[in-house]
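Recap from last week: sequence in, structure out.
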Amino acid sequence: MIRNGIDVSRWQGDIDWKSVRTDFCIMQAGFGREISQKDICFEKNYSGCKSAGIPCGAYWYSYAVSEDEAKKEAAVCLEVLKGKQFEYPIYFDVEERRTLDLGRAKVSAIIKAFLNELERAGYFAGLYMSASYLRDYVTDEVKQRYAVWVAHFGVSKPDYQGEYGMWQKSNTGRLTGITGNVDLDECYKDYPAIIKAEGLNGFPKNNVIRKEVTLTIDGKTYRGTLTQV
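Predicted structure tokens:
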């Protein structure tokens, strides 16, 4: 089942979330490695999505040029996300030229450094990149290890051969409740079910215990499964 969604940041300004109709939203949480770089609309967008019942995820825009800087960015990102729940992954947005110029091995190491910190903190971590950047600057190991959100506009499908769970297909979408253009996305995985079942992104883990049981009543044997939550 394809879910149609949007992604937003401060560039969309003040959104009327009561009027927005979308299956999900991915919002920018911030950028860089300082808490002052939290997206100025993040809190409004998060509370707006929750009030409107719109499942959401987040992304962090990176300027890191080393693994150490990526870890610092991750620490700030986690501080911004603290106390909130997200039904969709938390993505690392890598597209700065000075980062890409470091080459495939270094870019991949930077990505792993950030996403590993998110996973250690209990988040479902993913990578956002354009189709060409994924192809040219990321190792197969990294692309296969994390959830991928690929960006490619003006095509019927992304020019990317690897697996991806989400596609950013347009940056010129229009939606009631949002002034100007907004990015449009398609999602192909049931991230809310996966994330909630695993107890990630601020959700409690569902501790379901199933036991095979055998009962004998009046000489007859009955077998079944006992489910305990």
